[in-house]
User: Fold RsmB/NOP family class I SAM-dependent RNA methyltransferase from Paracholeplasma manati.
Amino acid sequence: MSTIDFIESKIKSYYPNHVEAIMAGLKAPKKVTFRINTLKSSIEAVLSTLEKQGLMVTPVDFSEIAFILNEGHEQDLQSLDIYDQGHIYLQSLSSMLPPIVLNPQKGDILDMAAAPGGKTTQMAALTHGLCTITACEQNPIRAQKLKYNLDKQGATKVTVITKDARQLDDFFRFDHILLDAPCSGSGTLDLNHEKHLQNFTDHLIQKSIQTQKALILKAIELLKPKQTMVYSTCSILKSENEDIVKFALKTNKVDIVPIDLNIEGVLPSDIPGVITVMPSALYEGFFIALLRKK
Ligand SMILES: C[S@@+](CC[C@H](N)C(=O)[O-])C[C@H]1O[C@@H](n2cnc3c(N)ncnc32)[C@H](O)[C@@H]1O
Assistant:
């Protein structure tokens, strides 16, 4: 079976009525999207710079700092001084959703699987430095990239821990936890480049599931009672999404909090209140669940 056939069979098993739409979404060339970093600049200043460069953008409903580049490529933004200075951060729209759903206001945040730091820096900007953030990353090379991005984006109140989050000390307690879990990446596959798909195997999916289960149990332990955590993946496979949330609910230590966010193009779910974003030209396939500890 070719990798594309394997992907299609997986999608068919979970979304028999959406196979064509999902496959088309995974093939669609992605729009360039970015976030304005309010730790370093302002919306007005960045929009004015872009306009002077002839780069037209469209705002996004769910966040005033998120924009779509109307025409052009990532390099058009990467070649600008405001990119080098960390005033903008290239980020997929789907990837901006978990911090928005978590909506931390004050206290201590744990970002359990943090590199390269798109969501860590977003949370630093969203909280205007009012929260302390602990960013954990297992892979030392990716942890370096995380530190580089934190520095570039001016996210100063972040402590990086280079460690397997499963080994975090149970003594810690956090007010907000983001578990943006390692996953198969099934929502971000580019079906136009078959040779880049070779890593997408059943072995990867099974390995991801084992890690996701261990990480979500750890997150539940580290979360303070009555506080919330987000579980997210860039996968659209229910075995890495709903099944992991059901596994967490079975501990009887957390409840689902329905997500109040209007996103066009979502896939049906058997858990009310979670969101599975359908892959498209604008969005990567993504899963988000909000949980509250009892
Ligand atoms: C989906 S990526 C995170 C993306 C990141 N949240 C962002 O927005 O930029 C998952 C990350 O988890 C890391 N990871 C995998 N297993 C881990 C573990 N057991 N503990 C901590 N980090 C882990 C991977 O190296 C990878 O960098």
